[in-house]
Write a structure and sequence with these properties.
The complex is a heterodimer. By secondary structure, chain A is α+β, with helices and mostly antiparallel strands. Chain A has two domains: 77 residues, 2-Layer Sandwich (Gyrase A, domain 2); 203 residues, Cyclophilin (Beta Barrel). In chain A, the strands form two sheets. Chain A has a seven-stranded mixed beta barrel, surrounded by four helices. Chain A has a four-stranded antiparallel sheet with strand order 1-2-4-3, with helices on one face. The longest helix of chain A has 17 residues. The radius of gyration of chain A is 20 Å and the shape is globular. Chain B has two domains: 170 residues, no CATH class; 123 residues, Cyclophilin, CATH 2.40.100.10. Helices cover 18% and strands 31% of the residues of chain B. In chain B, strands 1, 2, 3, 4, 5, 6, 7, 8 and 9 form a nine-stranded antiparallel sheet that branches. Chain B has a seven-stranded mixed β-barrel with strand order 10-17-14-15-12-11-18. The chains are: A alpha+beta, B alpha+beta. At the A-B interface, β1, β2, β3 and β4 of A face β13, β16, β17 and α5 of B.
């Protein structure tokens, strides 16, 4: 592993980059470091924002010179050599794949896509060597996705499928970004899945629609009261394919404000995951089933 | 209370913004021209973080229902009270039924309307600032519309004490068409060809029509990237990196085709190469730039950036001193 880079983001931010490449082991470790920075209440630090393979610190230079803060952060990095056990919530996300709304959106912006002759889902299947839709969706949802970063707009989560890099599902972004995407659209680009929290521009391949919101500015839903967003970095989301009937049922519950997310809090041990991912995921699945 | 008759092009409630929520993707929002906004509040005897209105390009008109004080700062803008022209950067009395009108901006882009007591829409996550993309804060998370009513707080200082107070013009930054903006280079700049970084600093950048509270898109030379394979997870385009956090003021170069400076309603992170960050003190200048305006970037060291920051605070301290708020602030601090 190359050396960690500490750099200034102007006079109020520091950017700390552990790796240029996405790597789950690095994400586990930096989440531990970020949680420790929050715990220690380092003078001058306003907040820390973990990202996929880096983190951003927002600070008040009136209270700490950035170089002094860099020294503190380097000491902390030396101290935390391996990722600690992380509290990680497993959240059920019901998804209607191949839905009419994202298909309509994809048609509207067909001129910006690599291959407008097929749907975005079919394109994602093809570039990853799948020909059957059912087979692809089953494989895609056969394991949880790790939330390695939260940001962009409130509630956007970068969801990384928990598999070795050589098995990653990958796809390029649109050639030119769309100017519109429906709220709650499920999409994939690079090695990440994301759910669009609000209607807006985007360049990910559109493959489905989440029945549940990931951002709730009006605090309609009891589980999002006072927190506004669903995602935490270090949570795991389990995507569950549903049909139109179930989608409509959940939508009614969400609109009535009575929907409760299915959330199971678990201790996640990065060392055990790294030793044998398949075995550890199976263990967590069984533990969750009994919770 | 304040009752909106005409909303203007884009008028929002802002204060100094909401900190601590960047990690959930919630940008700070808040007045883009931080200095002008704080002076506006000082002129009417408010704490600097009281909420006021940010007016973009063309102003609102509104009626007030109570006695009060008003100051308009920031961009050079037509400003009348009951159809009588009124001076900017100065505290004026308001009486029930008075009608305040702001016209088009003559120079600059954003004017600030500060009223004694401040606008007291409810706070969300510690701030009254509007974040339109996230439909959050301010008045229902949106820009103002005709018919909106905004509550005002109780004045902190006796109106008579502040009436007619002005800010020394020498302390007000000039509104320029050609901006010199200081930047600390770095972050992902190592991915960009050295000649392109030189071009970036030498070029005259033009503000495009896509320039709002999220960010300013600038037109200028294109960028070349250093050769090399893209890291796993970064995406195919050489301007893509594995998604990371974007500081407020950071400059990103999507596709190597343009430069975007992120402002207070920024997207908090993403996968584009960032090459540097505009220093906090100079973000006020960008807030007053409009499409067709020109920007040149000047590289500074971190210590020069910190010095510029201290100079801006010292300038504000002079405003407080001049307004007689210096002693008061000192007493409160003891």
């Amino acid at each position: 592993m190359s050396e960690t880079r500490y750099d200034y983001g102007g006079d109020e931010y520091l950017l700390v980059v552990f790796s240029e490449a996405m790597d789950l082991a690095i994400n586990f470790k930096l989440l531990s470091i970020c949680r420790e920075i929050e715990r220690r209440r380092i003078p001058g630090v306003i907040e820390v924002c973990p990202a996929n393979a880096s983190y951003l610190v927002h600070f008040r230079p009136e209270e700490t010179h950035p170089d002094a803060l860099i020294r503190t952060l380097k000491d902390l990095e030396r101290e935390i050599q391996s990722a600690e056990t992380l509290t990680s919530r497993l959240v059920d996300i019901p998804v209607l794949f191949d839905d009419p709304w994202t298909q309509e959106c994809a048609k509207r912006f067909a001129d910006r896509h690599q291959d407008p002759s097929v749907s975005n889902l079919e394109y994602l299947m093809r570039v990853n060597g799948y020909s059957s839709k059912e087979e692809f969706i089953t494989a895609y949802c056969d394991r949880p996705f790790w939330i390695s970063m939260v940001g962009f707009v409130p509630g956007t989560a970068w969801c990384y499928r928990m598999c070795p890099p050589e098995q990653a599902i990958q796809a390029p972004k649109y050639i030119r970004p769309r100017t519109d995407t429906p709220e709650r659209a499920v999409a994939h680009a690079g090695v990440f899945l994301c759910i669009y929290p609000v209607q807006g521009p985007g360049g990910y391949q559109l493959i489905g629609m989440s029945a549940v919101p990931v951002y709730d500015p009006e605090e309609h839903l009891p589980d999002l009261k006072g927190r506004y967003i669903l995602a935490n970095a270090g949570d795991r989301w389990q995507f569950r394919p549903i049909d139109m009937d179930e989608y409509n049922d959940i939508r009614s519950e969400v609109e009535a404000g009575s929907y409760r997310y299915r959330i199971i809090e678990q201790d996640f041990r990065p060392d055990e995951y790294m030793r044998d991912p398949e075995h550890y995921l199976k263990h967590l699945r069984e533990e969750a089933a009994h919770a | 209370m304040l009752s909106i008759l005409e909303p203007g092009l884009l008028t929002t409630v802002q204060d100094l913004g909401r900190l601590h929520w960047y990690h959930i993707g919630m940008p700070p929002s808040g007045a883009l021209d931080n200095f002008a906004f704080r002076v506006g509040n000082l002129l009417v005897g408010n704490p600097e973080d009281a909420a006021g209105l940010e007016v973009t390009y063309s102003g609102p008109s509104f009626e007030v229902t109570s006695e009060g004080l008003i100051a308009v700062t920031g961009a050079d803008i037509a400003f009348t009270i009951n159809n009588q022209p009124a001076a900017q950067w100065r505290a004026h009395a308001l009486h029930p039924g008075d009608r305040v009108s702001l016209g088009g901006v003559r120079r600059g882009a954003r004017a600030y309307v500060c009223l004694a007591g401040g606008i007291t829409v409810s706070e969300r996550l510690g701030s009254r600032s509007t974040y339109m993309l996230g439909r959050f804060g301010g008045l229902d998370g949106r820009k103002l519309e005709a018919g909106d009513c905004l509550p005002l707080g109780t004045a902190h200082t006796s109106p008579d004490a502040m009436l007619g107070r002005t800010c020394d013009p020498a302390l007000i930054p000039a509104l320029q068409k050609e901006l010199e903006v200081r930047v600390v280079m770095g972050m992902c700049s190592h991915r960009v060809a050295p000649d392109s970084l030189k071009d970036f600093l030498a070029a005259d950048w033009e503000v495009s029509t896509e320039a709002d509270r999220i960010g300013y898109r600038l037109k200028g030379p294109t960028f070349e990237f250093n050769a090399g394979e893209q890291p796993f997870g970064a995406g195919a385009d050489p301007s893509n990196v594995v998604d990371l956090g974007y500081p407020i003021g950071s400059i990103q170069i999507p596709g190597g085709l343009e430069a975007i400076v992120l402002l207070n309603d920024a997207v908090t992170g993403g996968g584009y190469t960032t090459i540097g960050t505009v220093i906090k003190a100079d973000l006020d200048l960008i807030a007053q730039a409009s499409p067709g305006g020109h920007i040149r970037f000047h590289e500074v060291t971190i210590n020069e950036a910190l010095q510029a920051r201290r100079e801006r605070e010292a300038r504000l301290e002079l405003v407080r001193l001049e307004l007689g708020l210096f002693d008061q602030a000192n007493l409160l601090g003891q």
